[in-house]
Amino acid sequence: MSEEDDELLGMFVQEASEHLETIEPDLLTLEENGDGTDPEIINRLFRGVHSIKGSAGFFGLTNITKLSHTMENLLGKVRERTMSASPGVTDGLLSGLDKLKAMIEDVSASSSVDASAEIRVMQAVLDGESSKGAAPPVAAAPVEPPQASVSAPEESAAEVQNVVEASEAEEAEVAPEAEEVVADVADSTPATPVMGDEAPAGQGFDLAKYPEIVSESVIHGRRFYRFHMDISGTGSAKRTRFSQTKALLSSVGKVVDTDPPFAGEGDLEGYRGDVLDLLITTVLEADLLVSLLQTEEKRIQPVEIPENMTRDVAQPKAQSKSEVRPAASEPELSDIEASVAAELSVEAMGFRPRLRRPEPGVITSDQMRGRGDSGGGAAAKGGGGAPTMEETLRVSVSLLDELINMAGELVLARNQMTRAAVEVQTQFPHFGPLIQNLDSITSRIQEKVMQARMQPVSVVFNKFPRIVRDLARKLEKKIDLEIRGGEVDLDKSVIEHLSDPLTHMIRNVADHAIELPQERIKAGKPESGRVELAAYHENGMVNISLADDGAGIDAERVKAKALEKGQITERQADTMSEEDALNLIFAPGLSMAKKVSDVSGRGVGMDVVRTNIEKLGGTVMVQSKVGKGTNIILKLPLTLAIIPAMIVSSGNQRFAIPEIGLVEIVRIAEADRANQIETVGNAPVLRLRNMLLPLVDLAEVLGVTRVWPAGSGQDDRRGRLSDRRAQARKAREATRISTSSNLAFSANSRELVGEDRRDDLSDRRDPNNLVAYVMVLNVGGNEFGMVVDEVLDSEEIVVKPLPSYFKDNLCFSATTILGDGSVSLIIDYAGLMEQAKINFSNVERATRMDLDEERRAALRERQNIILLETGSGLIMGIVHSMVRRVEKISPKLLDTIGGLPYVRYDGRTFRAVYPDQVMGLEGMGYSGGDPEEEGDADLCMVVPNIPNIQAGLIFSRIIDTRETHIDLDCRAIRGEGLFGSAQIDDRVVLFPDVNTVLVLAGIEMPHVQSQIDRTGLRALVVDDTPFLRALTTNYLQSVGFEVEQAEDGNAALAKLKKGEFDLLVTDLNMPGMDGFELAHEIPSTIHADIPMIATTSSISSEVEQRCFKAGFVSCVPAIDKNRLLKIVSLMRSMD
Amino acid sequence: MLVSTFTLGDLYLGIDIVLVREINRSMECTPVPGSHDYIRGMLNIRGRVITLFDLKKRLGWSDNELGDGAGIKQYNVIMKTHSEVLKINPRLAETKCPWEDPVGLAVDQLGDVREIVDDNILPPPANMGGISADFVHGVVEFERNLLIILDVATVLGFDERSSG
């Protein structure tokens, strides 16, 4: 096959695949809606199959032609409404479609594919319909029903002659010519050899395409026939044969179209097939036509005129193009040349996308003819295309990839340029704007180029309706699949790898999650299971969620199974949270199917899902409620080509660590190494909060020469981490013990890293303050710590594949080029773990789970806090919502009246309170403050959010405001007016109880607390956040309550069962059992009448409504002491 | 054919110039921990990540033979890749250039570009010092020098049989 043919064939495959993509969903719609399907959809189906058939015929792909032909026949019947779209029909079509897909995917092998089974099935449907003798609805039309003509009796040539003569009387002006022609043909045309393959039954032409010809024919009483013409032989023989046929017909009718279509007779020479189908309109009967064309009768088949078209003709006034032909996209051409010319460029050759069809009537047949017969004409006609669709171009992926690479290089060049520009700018001041311009253009180019690689997820999603349908059939279930967000774009590379995991998930849902219809009815659910597949953007990632309303996953059963398989220990099973238990479904070899079906249940599946998604840099989450349903959420990066990464150094070398999977970074000062790093067995572990985190020293695993201190270039003689511990201990003895500098922050807070880095540099000058960093990484649910020397930067890096020369290297996944132009390696966590031979023993796993619980509790509610520094250098944190406003005041505004400090501000006088003095904590801060500076530096006054109070807390400056999790320690530092302390970043932050501080300062609170005295009553405070629990407890204690605490609903219930309480104050948002659930449980306890108050960090009318419904007396913001106490006092009066 | 020549210690080596993309002065490169010792690391040349082979180590020279190379400024001979050669000489690409990823060889000194006649290429003598016959495509006698034409595919670790 010549190169050109290859190219054309490629185009055919591409175009056919595009058709197949639309055919499948349309078939499913057809199946669903049956005869009620939008005629446009059926038309589209028909056109798609037809055009595949046409092009396949052009290439002589007889198998594809035959199969698509049969499908087309079946579809034709459906379209004409002579056959209803029964399940039998759609089944046949779908099976045919599958075979067709297989053949088109491997076109070269298509000739050896056996599609006879599919064809037989469809043919059976076709035959079954005809044999039933379904009354053709066109009985009244002047066209003979198909059955009749198919069984036309054989007639001899002599008889034909007679009939022709006989018809003369009726068709006086036509018949004489016809007679002559017949005579001519008898001489000039060689006898037609009988072909090897049988002429397929049915018709391949769609008369709806030629409404004008049809209506004209109907008016003139012409009929349509399909002539299955044998044109075997050389190119010129084909041409001659075609012209002769046309000439023969010219007196009695004409050739309307051919199948496959041709531009001109000249093109026939290139046609490979031996058979050409002609659509003929003529006044002749079938038998006459047979003799006229000197062929066998089986080659002539009548094409019936669709009922709607004949009707339209009967009422010419009502006729309109759009009615007849809802899909007005086919060119409307009135003679063979024009039709063939158009077909050549738009259909047979597959040169152009469908959307650029010529506008009917805009281009005359003469113009067309003048445009030649190749793609050139196609381009010229492009302008007349349908205006509604965007023009598209096919671009090869390799070209795109090259573009992306170059855009990446451009970004690097830009980065280098920007650096260099700093110096240049001092000499050439105009250089800055130029660089800025370059900068923005570069960014835009990169963005656009990346966009070019994006594909909508519908590419993957669209195959699921079919899969779900097939599965539902097989499993005898009813499943409705709803797809949302198909337009969400993802990088091609991500899309490509999404198909398998999603298919696994969908199979699982259909097999396990959705119950049998009768079970669903019993459970009070609709008969059909609902499955929703949705894609949406969130936090710069794309989420794909698969939700069902099926049976849900029973966490207990998963645990039992995992226990049985020895994947968890009994102790773990006991302590394991539901969430962790659900996550076990992703463990290898754990199948939840009660029995193995051929759909799923062999224990491969969900672990593959997780592995695949993690390979893509994504994560998998599962939520489930027994009896209610399951929701699996995949979080995926938009692209794999550019990822956010931390640049770290180890030894003298820099490495990139993808931020996905990075949980936190812990900074360990050399002095604290001994406290925090222990050795279990042979391996160093980090004691992080309650958990033992296995540590891997990056330099050690990679065999990089360690330098210490970082950057000094000297070899670190201390060797392994565990050895360094001893060293560290000595160091510790020698130097003062500094506070633990455990820096924990989420991986995405870049600023913090930058800030910290600066701190480091100064730290490093002091040899006693050497630090190392532990990158806490999560691999498949397991966490480990990777020790690096320095965290340098956070960068969006362009991922470049790892050269094949390193293919057996486990530790690296790819390379990148850093801002300074040097090459850096991207660490592959999983490989690194393997290289370091870490495996997570059960003990570690259990500790980790304990920790997870704790961490979750701490993470659940983030608090917005203001960090302030007192004059004595203490750092205090005040929760944002406790503060009405913060004012900057000049010390000059400070006055002393009657021995007490006041501030005049805004025309009012505020009592100034120095919290450190009031609480007697002055001595605790360092006294490094410059006393002189204090003299005129602005101060900062915090006005607490307490009504009717004219007082402000005075601090020297605001350090920061930050939303963070407070891990409040109420024991380490105690003091009146102090809730406790917490570590934020690196520093100890004190949390004052503003109310108490004010009381300590002698300021009378606006409400007299003694009015409420609840001494002797017991309250239960439920809150998962330690800080807030302490706060609420404190408030209640201040009015005399004896308070017990519980960290969640379950613990609260346990306490309520044991003891007697007079008041319940609970947080609404808690893990395990939340506040609403707790309220729901209360009536079943002995405390059925206990007054309940809800606290929440986000109050809204909706929440309040829910609270009242749930039986709460009131709902108050978590830190609003006054409101809480007011409600408590009101309750008193209610008593 | 035209051969780009260079020296490596006392050896006079050459590579078919069609396979050579460019030659640079050696520059700093990023070592790849855990890789073979004859891979010096990776370079960024105009945005392409290039793996640099240390030819001396690849030929198995001992530390003695390596000498104190500290003073010598080496050169990197950057090779074309399979797809690049494919555009110029498909036959050569199939037979002599199986590598797909950009790669370079670190050599000592650069020599001239020599025209040699294929017929003059002799099989490698058995007693060559400093280089195994596996790495040699053939030798040519040149002004009483022996020019050794490298078999780059073998040097880069591609089995000649499998690469055709």
Describe the structure.
The complex is a heterodimer of chains A (1135) and B (164). Chain A has seven domains: 3-131, Four Helix Bundle (Hemerythrin (Met), subunit A), CATH 1.20.120.160; 146-319, no CATH class; 397-452; 455-637, 2-Layer Sandwich (Heat Shock Protein 90), CATH 3.30.565.10; 642-857, no CATH class; 861-1000, no CATH class; 1009-1134, Rossmann fold. The longest helix of chain A is centred in the first third of the chain and has 31 residues, at 3-33. The model of chain A is unreliable at 131-203, 313-388, 595-603, 708-768, 842-860 and 925-934 (pLDDT under 50). Chain A has a six-stranded mixed beta sheet. A six-stranded mixed beta sheet of chain A has the order 14-18-19-17-16-15. In chain A, strands 26-30-31-29-28-27 form a six-stranded mixed beta sheet. In chain A, 41% of the residues lie in helices and 21% in strands. Chain A has 1135 residues and is α+β, with helices and mostly antiparallel strands. In chain A, strand 15 (677-680) and strand 16 form a beta hairpin. In chain B, strand 4 and strand 5 (48-54) form a beta hairpin. The longest helix of chain B has 7 residues, at 82-88. Classes of the chains: A alpha+beta (1135), B alpha+beta (164). At the A-B interface, helix 17, strand 21, strand 22 and strand 23 of A face strand 4 of B.
Describe this protein with a few key phrases.
heterodimer; A: 1135 residues; alpha+beta; Four Helix Bundle (Hemerythrin (Met), subunit A); six-stranded mixed sheet; 41 helices; B: 164 residues; OB fold (Dihydrolipoamide Acetyltransferase, E2P); five-stranded mixed sheet; 6 helices
- N-to-C terminal Cα separation of chain B, in Å? 20 Å
Helix content of chain B: 10-25%
What's the CATH topology name of chain B? OB fold (Dihydrolipoamide Acetyltransferase, E2P)
Instruction: Quickly count the helices of chain B.
Output: 6
User: Given the structure, what is the number of helices of chain A?
Assistant: 41
Compute the gyration radius of chain B: what is it? Answer: 15 Å
* CA distance, first residue to last residue of chain A: 97 Å
> Rounded to an integer, what's the Rg of chain A over CA atoms?
41 Å
Q: Widest sheet of chain B: strand order?
A: 8-1-2-10-9
Assembly status: heterodimer
Mean pLDDT of chain B: 85
Strand order of the largest sheet of chain A: 20-12-13-23-22-21
Low-confidence stretches of chain A: 131-203, 313-388, 595-603, 708-768, 842-860, 925-934
Secondary structure category of chain A: alpha+beta
CATH hierarchy, class of chain B: Mainly Beta
Low-pLDDT ranges of chain B: none
Give the helix proportion of chain A (percent range): 40-55%
Shape of chain A: elongated
Task: Compute the number of structural domains of chain A.
Answer: 7
User: Largest contact between protein chains?
Assistant: A-B, 28 and 24 residues
Derived from helix and strand composition plus strand pairing, the structural class of chain B reads: alpha+beta
